[in-house]
C-alpha cells in the first residue's frame, strides 16, 4: 500500500497547529467537538475501537515506525490529515517537556440517555457534578477494567475530554460511552427504564457489603466537595456506605467507586 500523504509543518504560527493548541481550552474543545490524545498506543486503541480521527501529528525522529505506519494506514481510510511536526510543536501542544512522538486529534462522542440500555448484566456509573479531571480519567480506567458500559455526567461536571482526564484514563477512554444530562432527566430515565440505582452516601446506614445488586444497575456517586445532592440521593433505590476507620471523613470518589464496582461486578470478573 502507498504510504499515506504527510505534510511537514515547522511553524507554530501554522493555522492547523494554532487550532490544535487551542484545544487545551474547554471552550474550543466544545466549539470544535474535538480533543487530543497523546501517544501511539492510545491512538491505536482509539482507532481499533472505531473513533473518528481528524488529525495525526507525528515526529519524524519518533520510534515504533512499524506501528506508526499501521496507525496511519488505519486512519488513512477516514481521510484524516497527517502532519509531521517538530518536537517543539509537540511540546507546545501538550505543554510538556519530552512530549510523546504521536498525538491524535479525535472527534468527541456524546450519547443520549437512550444509549443506557436496560439489559441484564449492564452496569453504568453516574457521577453528579464531579470536578476533578484526574478523578474522572481514573474512573474511566476503573470502568473499563470492571466492564462498566459507560459514564453519565450529571449537571455541571469537569470535561472528560480534557488532557488531564484523557491522560489519567490511560488509554481506557475509547471503550467508555459518555452521556451528559441534567439531574431530573437522569432520575426519570433511570426510573422509567428499570435501572436499579444504588447511591453511595456518607449518611447511608447500609454497609455496601450487605446490599444486593441487581442489573441493569446505575451506581451513583457524588461530587468531591458537596457529595450527592439530596434530590438524587432521594431518587436512588438504595443508599450504601463503605465503612471507614480513622478520622478521614470520606474516601476519594475514584477510590470509593473502585471498591463499589469490584463488589457489584464480582461475579462477572474472572482471572
Ligand atoms: N463532603 C462530601 C460528602 O459529604 O459527601 C464528601 C464527598 S466524597 C469525597 C465524594 C463521593 O464519594 C461521595 O459523594 C460518595 O458518593 C463517595 N464516597 C466517598 N467515601 C464514601 C464512603 N465511605 N461510603 C460511601 N460513599 C463514599
Detailed description of the structure:
The chain is α/β, with parallel strands linked by helices and 271 residues long. It has 2 domains: 6-107, 60s Ribosomal Protein L30, Chain: A (2-Layer Sandwich), CATH 3.30.1330.30; 113-268, SPOUT methyltransferase, trefoil knot domain (Alpha/beta knot), CATH 3.40.1280. Helix content is 34%, strand content 20%. The chain has 10 helices and 11 strands. The protein has helices spanning 15-22, 26-32, 40-48, 65-76, 87-94, 133-146, 163-168, 183-193, 230-235, 253-264, and strands spanning 7-9, 34-38, 53-59, 81-85, 102-107, 123-128, 150-154, 177-181, 196-200, 217-221, 238-240. Strands 8-7-6-10-9-11 form a 6-stranded parallel β-sheet, with helices on both faces. It has a 5-stranded mixed β-sheet with strand order 1-4-3-5-2. Helix 6 (133-146) links the parallel strand 6 (123-128) and strand 7 (150-154). The longest helix is centred in the middle third of the chain and has 14 residues, at 133-146. It is elongated. The two termini are 40 Å apart. The structure holds S-adenosylmethionine. S-adenosylmethionine (SAM) binds next to helix 10. The site of S-adenosylmethionine has 15 residues, from helix 10.
Amino acid at each position: 500500500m502507498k504510504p499515506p500523504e504527510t505534510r511537514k509543518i515547522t511553524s507554530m504560527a501554522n493555522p492547523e497547529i494554532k487550532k490544535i493548541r487551542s484545544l487545551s481550552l474547554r471552550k474550543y474543545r466544545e466549539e470544535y467537538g474535538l480533543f487530543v490524545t497523546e501517544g501511539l498506543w492510545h491512538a491505536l486503541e482509539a482507532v481499533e475501537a472505531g473513533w473518528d480521527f481528524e488529525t495525526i501529528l507525528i515526529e519524524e525522529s519518533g520510534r515504533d515506525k512499524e506501528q506508526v505506519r499501521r496507525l496511519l494506514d488505519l486512519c488513512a481510510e477516514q481521510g484524516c490529515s497527517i502532519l509531521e511536526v517538530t518536537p517543539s510543536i509537540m511540546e507546545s501542544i501538550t505543554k510538556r517537556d519530552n512530549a510523546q512522538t504521536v498525538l491524535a486529534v479525535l472527534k468527541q462522542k456524546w450519547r443520549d440517555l437512550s444509549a443506557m440500555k436496560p439489559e441484564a448484566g449492564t452496569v453504568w456509573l453516574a457521577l453528579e457534578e464531579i470536578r476533578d479531571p484526574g478523578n474522572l480519567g481514573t474512573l474511566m480506567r476503573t470502568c473499563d477494567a470492571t466492564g462498566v458500559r459507560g459514564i453519565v455526567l450529571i449537571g455541571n461536571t469537569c470535561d472528560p475530554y480534557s488532557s488531564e482526564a484523557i491522560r489519567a484514563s490511560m488509554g481506557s477512554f475509547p471503550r467508555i460511552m459518555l452521556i451528559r444530562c441534567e439531574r431530573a432527566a437522569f432520575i426519570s430515565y433511570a426510573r422509567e427504564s428499570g435501572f436499579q440505582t444504588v447511591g453511595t452516601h456518607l449518611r447511608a446506614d447500609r454497609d455496601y457489603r450487605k446490599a444486593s445488586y441487581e442489573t441493569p444497575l446505575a451506581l451513583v456517586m457524588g461530587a468531591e466537595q458537596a457529595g450527592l445532592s439530596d434530590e438524587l440521593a432521594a431518587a436512588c433505590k438504595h443508599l450504601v456506605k463503605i465503612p471507614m476507620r480513622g478520622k478521614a471523613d470520606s474516601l476519594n470518589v475514584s477510590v470509593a467507586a473502585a471498591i463499589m464496582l469490584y463488589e457489584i461486578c464480582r461475579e462477572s470478573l474472572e482471572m
